[in-house]
Specification:
Layout (H helix, E strand, L loop, with lengths): L1 H34 L3 H14 L4 H13 L3 H10 L6 H13 L3 H13 L5 H13 L3 H14 L4 H13 L3 H14 L4 H13 L3 H14 L4 H13 L3 H14 L4 H13 L3 H14 L4 H13 L3 H14 L4 H13 L3 H14 L4 H13 L3 H14 L4 H13 L3 H13 L5 H9 L3
């Protein structure tokens, strides 16, 4: 009996060893495929392992990595979840990557934060975490994540550029320029940093200075099509129409499928009041990028100018479908609906814009104007006050609040508002001050 027991043990040990060696062979083959970029071939080998042992940690981890690489994020997440009990940086990383690309930002953030805490985060992990915070509109956290990235490697010029890009997106142009300067100090021929510094100066309406930065970016990287595009738009702002056209044409030669180039050329045509050409360019941008919400929005604005209100409404509807939190589109659609006498729907759009952006001064102002027209002066005053809270230099809001207060009999408050509106440049305020506030 003892001899039989020993033989059985030897048999099972040999079988298990062979089993394990087979699994290892498949995994080795899969890793070789992955090194060559043959992810589907790797998945075939890994499926063989998991058919033998579905709980194999290494196979599940590599399978998740391979499926992430081919864009099968749900499949990757399934395998990563199987090994979630393993508290390792590799598992946090692969699962965080899957969740990010499935837009499950609240779930991916703790995993990426844990990676940083373990000092195992790679540069791409910091960037992914910052983007996740940004998608959740947590701008301070997004910025602080990039600051942590910079602190981890202060000699990497790309880290400063990434924070500059985020500052640019959040309208903090001075801070963005500072980071571009730091990036350029670290790398004197950093074309992208010159380009983004130019873009920031562009937004500050420093067009000549912006053009100089675009010039430098193009000098350093002659195939940087975005620099030609933005220099073209800046040149159109300085009335250099010929230079603008040449830049847009060069950008298209470099990248004929760039929707952004046609979009910005459309903006240039708006500046020139060439509305048909603007619409033509926005059409081309949309043909190249069917979900280009900014192009739908701008095309709608131009169509309103030329009296094509019905198709403008369709464009605004489409912009909102593509980007459901597009506050400017809700506000613009509200104005158009109000123009078309659909006041209830107009008010709904203003309200939706305010829900999405509680400090959106223009939406408060427009809703206030609508309430004023409906003789709801108290409601109008509330909205004008909120518009002023959001923008203390909003002269038109002071003017309209004065009118609402005057209609309710608050003459002293009205005169104070008209006086403030005059200081802020409202041209109608002085006449009202003379007529209603001057002692006779």
């Amino acid at each position: 009996m003892i001899r039989l027991f020993v033989l059985v043990c030897v048999f099972f040990y040999s079988f298990s060893l062979a089993f394990a060696q087979t699994e290892k062979a498949y995994i080795t083959a899969a890793q070789a495929h992955i090194q060559k970029g043959f992810y589907n071939d790797a998945i075939i080998e890994l499926n063989k392992v998991l058919a033998l042992n579905s709980e194999n940690v290494e196979a599940n981890l590599i399978m998740a990595q391979a499926k992430n690489a081919i864009g099968d994020y749900m499949g990757a997440l399934t395998h990563a979840t199987k090994i979630s009990h393993i508290k390792s940086p590799e598992v946090y990383s692969v699962k965080g990557y899957s969740l990010f690309h499935l837009y499950r930002f609240n779930e991916c953030i703790p995993l990426l934060e844990e990676l940083i805490k373990l000092k195992s985060a790679k540069r791409e992990d910091y960037l992914m975490l910052s983007k996740a915070y940004f998608r959740l509109k947590k701008r301070e956290e997004a910025t602080s994540t990039l600051t942590r990235l910079i602190d981890s490697d202060r000699k990497n010029e790309n880290n400063y550029l990434e924070r500059a890009k985020l500052y640019y997106l959040t309208d903090k142009y001075s801070q963005a320029i500072e980071d571009c300067n730091r990036a350029i100090d670290l790398k004197k021929d950093f074309a992208e940093a010159f380009y983004y510094r130019g873009a920031c100066k562009d937004e500050q309406k420093k067009y000549e200075a912006a053009i100089l930065d675009y010039d430098k970016a193009i000098e350093l990287k002659p195939d940087l099509s975005d620099a030609y595009t933005d220099r073209g738009l800046a040149r159109s702002k300085t009335k250099d129409k010929t230079g603008a056209i040449n830049d847009f044409n060069r950008a298209i030669q470099l990248n004929a499928t760039s929707a952004s180039t046609y979009y910005k050329q459309g903006l240039s045509e708006i500046d020139s009041k060439n509305f048909k050409a603007a619409i033509k360019n926005f059409n081309k941008a949309i043909d190249l990028k069917s979900d280009y919400h900014e192009a739908f929005y701008k095309r709608a604005q131009v169509k309103i100018i030329v009296g094509e209100n019905n198709t403008a409404m369709l464009d605004l509807d489409h912009a909102i479908r593509v980007k459901p939190d597009y506050v400017e589109a809700y506000n613009a659609r509200g104005l158009l609906k109000e123009q078309l006498k659909n006041t209830i729907a107009a008010k709904d759009d203003y309200t939706k814009a305010i829900e999405l952006e509680p400090n959106y001064a223009e939406a408060f102002y427009n809703r206030g104007v609508l309430k004023f027209k409906q003789d709801d002066y108290s409601g109008a005053i509330d909205d004008f006050s909120k518009a002023i809270d959001a923008n203390v230099n909003y002269g038109d809001a002071f003017f309209k609040r004065a009118s609402a207060r005057f209609n309710l009999g608050y003459k002293k408050d009205a005169c104070e508002d008209w006086s403030k509106a005059k200081q802020l440049g409202n041209k109608n305020a002085e006449e009202n001050l003379k007529q209603y506030c001057t002692k006779k």
